[in-house]
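To whoever is on call:

I kicked off a structure prediction for a single chain this morning and the downstream step that reads the tokens threw a length-mismatch warning. I double-checked the sequence; it's 264 residues and nothing unusual in it as far as I can see. Pasting both halves so you can look.
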Amino acid sequence: MKSALNAIQTQEVRPGVKDNVELYNVPKPLPAFERPHPSIINENREEIERFARHIHEQIVGKLLVLFAIILELPEDYFLARHRYDEKSDCHLRYMKYHHRTEDENRLLEDVWIKGHTDFGSLTLLFRQPVAALQVRTPEGSWKWVKPYPGSITVNLADALEFLTNGFLKSSIHRVVAPPPDQRDLDRLGVLYFVRPEDDLELRPVESEVLKRLGYNQTSDESAAGITAGAWVKARVAKGATGDKPRNDLKEQVIIGGKAAKYYD
């Protein structure tokens, strides 16, 4: 997975403009992911791990059951492929977007992070009431995602799109400069990334619903032969070693001929 700490201004977003993000990832408490953490994490690790497990088992689990019911699969179908104690790149992230100057926003055309999809199955966002997240509609326009009090914003991600042959769509989203009355505010977020077990092949599921709706098993959307772990690892590596500024990307071949697209 991506390194635990990302210091501010480590990646180029546009020529001459670096990112404005600090983040820290806390992986699941499995032996394969053990590593040193800062004291603030160690001092609160029991609570952090309890929170992450609660999210996975009590919130994510219910969503995965719902998807299985919709597809007329056994209710535990996706649960059995997202077990918390098995190796996968699920992790909790603490994130801070530092506000930008008007000159920086103008250079970026107000787009801090270009439209993209996430790597795994789901992303859960616990957000401040600072407007910055937008989602791309089927018509290609951008819509603000309102942070309702007491709610969690949930994005579907690549793995579920592959597993359902495009029936469930990976959410295309971006981060933009907040409206004028919030532009001087830093934006905080806590996120939980849900990813299938590493060895799961991203082959479309055998679902009568998909067959009835025409999402057949030989579609070009299929990622058969690619495992969830390989897809995540390749997308992380491409993001870290890209030869173009991040916001200049249009499309990027990831692995097995499958590409990730980026949107203005």
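Update from on-call: the warning came from a stale cache, not from the record. Cleared it. Sanity check on the structure: The chain has a mean pLDDT of 91.
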